[in-house]
Amino acid sequence: MMGSCVVPVLIGLVLLQMHKISECHKIEVTPDSGTIVVFTKKPDQDLDCDVCKDEGPSQSCNSKLDLAEARPTIVTFNCSQPGDVFTVEINQKIDCSATACSIIAVHPDSTRFLEFNRTFNWDLKVQSSHMFQLDFPAPGMRQIKPSESCPDKHTYTIITYQRSGPNSIGTFCRNGTISRIQALFKGRVSLEVPKDTALNPSDFKVSIGPDTEALVVVDVKLPRGLPSVEFFTPNYGTGHYSEDKMKWNFAVEPMQNFTVLFQHYTPPACQKEKVLVGYALGDKTSFTTDPKDIQPFNKQGDFSLTLTNCEAKKGSNGLSLNINVTVFRGGTPYFCTVDLRNEEGLSLQIENKNPESSCEMSLNSVAQEKIVVPAGTKADLSFLDCPVQDLQLTATKTIDCPSASSRDTSGTSLTIPTLDPSLHVPLHQFTWLLRVLDPGTVDLTSPIKVLHQSVPDKECNDRVSLLISETDGSNIGQFCSLAEGTIQKIQIKGNVSITVTPKTIKDLSQEKGSFLKVAMSPEINENVIYTVSPSVSGPMYLATPNWPDGLNPSSSVTWIVSVPQEHKVELQFTNVSKPVCDSGHTEVAISPLDPQGQTQSWREDQIFVNTVIQQQSFFLNVSNCEPKSGSFAVLSKVTLYKEAKNFLSIILAVVGVLLLLVIIALIVVCVILKRKKKPMTNRSSIFLPRGKPFLPGNATFPKSRADNESHVYASIDDSTMYGNFADKNQPAEVDNRPWSNGHQVDAYHPFTGPSDSTPSAKDSSAEYSMDGRGGDRDAYQPFLSPPNTFNLARPRSPLVSQGSIRFEDRRMIDNELHTFKSFGDINPIRLSADESRLQPQMGSDTDSNTEPEYEEAI
Asked: Are residues 493 and 366 in the same domain?
């Protein structure tokens, strides 16, 4: 019976020992150079668990293990959960007493000893008269009470070692206002992290500080918008007994006011001296006060606070003080009210774009970094020390577009609504969100001019610029309304975003006109369709949406290009980027609007034709594939020309007219030259009493002087002919060159023809005509005196032929040159019809023509 009970007990003991061996935990530890790893058993743990170093016969086990050698070491725990029993300390020494140093304290691997409570210690040492300096990365450290813990479970503690003993500078967390801490001589920085918490430390910098008599110096940066900050004296809660100085330097932002308040002050039992508080405001003002007095209130600028302790009695209260610094804004804010309840779908957003500015904005009395006024609400805004140039106001208006089947055909004009005049902030940007409720297409047109797309070669220079985007946020392009634009309409499938920004103006609220007109049409297959009309004034550019970035995958765009009659278009692909397609192909297709026309198309794996000529309106379609790599973007240039044949016909017509004019001119010149080649007689003036003197023109004798005897006279009575001139010393010879002016003078020949009785002419005015019937027709014409006036009466017809020898002219009676034998008055009768035919015929080239008779010029 007894044996049967012992056997199970022995078996149980063996199994228990095997279970204990199986519960052992083994890890490998390799300390960093200059680092000591210490495993320590918690003092309140009674569990039988030891830590062992190495394996085999050399193994040693204890409740504490120190590892200092930088080599791999096997550490074994004879329990399954050593993290509940042991803690780990990682200690590193930084000695800056011999030489100057500047070291960044780098923490170990965050995954090491994750199952233990960890404490990281940095032991610091400098020269006895100096301070060690700790610089913390932004945003700095925050001091807490010793009984508190940090939200991220990373708690720092700073201790300084003095002759009187260790002094705890304080307990700190990350994300605070303390940028630097300086402590005297030597000390320790500790970081405690609980188990199962990943290490996320602040890699602070260690260096040698200045020579000072203070125990600790804390540098603080007080940002805007922080209501209050707390600081605690060393050994807070237990009391500080040494006669030391503690100093805090505060940097305050401009336009900020501060107030200092002492809380939970515990005065020490001073043996000598007393506790004093000294302030230095700026560079000039400094004063000293008692901790129980009122501290500085509503002051501006940087300041420092120095707390000097007395030597307190041991066993009594030590110095303990909680310092509270409150920061707030000074000045008078500007208030305004924004009411958006009457403007459907309109919302506002105001931002301060200058991070260095002291601007403070509030929405409904709550300080905000960015003010957002939702649509359909009313808000009270305030601005304190906010320059207008630092503020940026943007507005967004949501418009629900009606379906294409509705009866609304007038469309909607996009205009900027009038904002509250009390809001003195320039409008920097305005956005319309066009939401399509039913499947349809948004049609965009310019109400006054036509649209132009801004491309690098031809950017917009208008007052404002319009950014048009699709629903997914991809940009279609930048556009502006210009007179020289070519885009008549843009059609976009789905929701559209249109954002207007100023280019040459500062405030969009000054623009009161309509920017675009929006209408709805049935849904299209392409993502975007442009309707364009190129101009002969210059080239236009067609850029795919989101240029210079690529088209969206599996999207397409079409341009409808109108070509006027008697014109042609040169389409040139100036910039094309091709992707590597994962599925499908990219395609560029050119199709005439005439369905009978021929379509040209290219894929990404084909060579593009650089230039295409189109003589009629056409479609240009660009579609993308599902790219594997790269992007698909196309930039083309469209140039409109007049047809060359029209210019050729005009040129030929002009040349023909000019040729005809040249031929006519040549004919005229030839005729004139031929007439000038004929022998020309010298012109002689004929005196007509009470008539006008004139030249006989081109009237010539029908025969040359060598062929006729018209210049031969039988006899000349010199006394009768030249008697009147002899008294005046005139030349007596007819052939005298100066007198005749070089003209040939005919000689007189007596008339031998029949004579008839002719009454004497009563009027002295007569014309001399030639008998055109046989014989020599040349007759002597006497030289007459010039008339006294140019307004002469019309000459009258003589009663008898002036060619008769019996003709007598009274005007020649007193003239010794007259040679007529009888006298008579000229009957004032005009020339008859028969006599008029005796006038000279111009243009005759035959010698048989009579010598012309000259009439008075009227």
From this structure: yes
